[in-house]
Amino acid sequence: MCRPKMVVLGSREQLCIHEEVSLLRGRAQTNACHSLCRKRTKKGYCGHYSRVSESCKLLLKL
């Protein structure tokens, strides 16, 4: 798996796209985000996570 070098210039509060989690603040949002990500990636439900390898392959071709 490739590990592109990048930086995200924003916090979960600014960048969260999940409707319910984005309404939370502070540690509650962080905990909900981590829990949701773990559940969704283990089950293969997270479309954003599953596209990481596809994006890496495209980047390596450049």
Automatic annotation (TrEMBL):
Q: Which GO terms describe its molecular function?
A: ATP binding; DNA binding; DNA helicase activity
> What are the residue boundaries of the RAD3-like helicase DEAD domain, all occurrences included?
5-55
- InterPro entries according to UniProt: RAD3-like_helicase_DEAD
Q: Which domain of life is it from?
A: Eukaryota
Q: What is this protein called?
A: RAD3-like helicase DEAD domain-containing protein
| Species, as recorded | Vitis vinifera
